[in-house]
Description:
By secondary structure, this protein is mainly alpha-helical.
Amino acid sequence: MKINKSHENYNNYIKISQKREISKKEIKTSKDKNIDVQISESSKRLAQFVNLEKDEGISERVETIKKAIMQGTYKVDDKTIAKKIMDNIFIQKGEKLK
């Protein structure tokens, strides 16, 4: 099996993560200061709507998968998983999907 520079992607990810951690430490906040944030009613309604839309589809699917796993009837399609992995590799490399 030949590995094509995938370790470089991992190393770049680690470097970026470390830089983020450093920048997080450099940010100092005072717990004594209060910040007043006001969110409009229309924004609150929009956020509720978006959360409900996301939750409905995901919850049903998650419950179906949980039930299948508990019953021992959940089947893993190895070809679909392999295709998704390869698609992601091609996307990361900037190549067209096959």
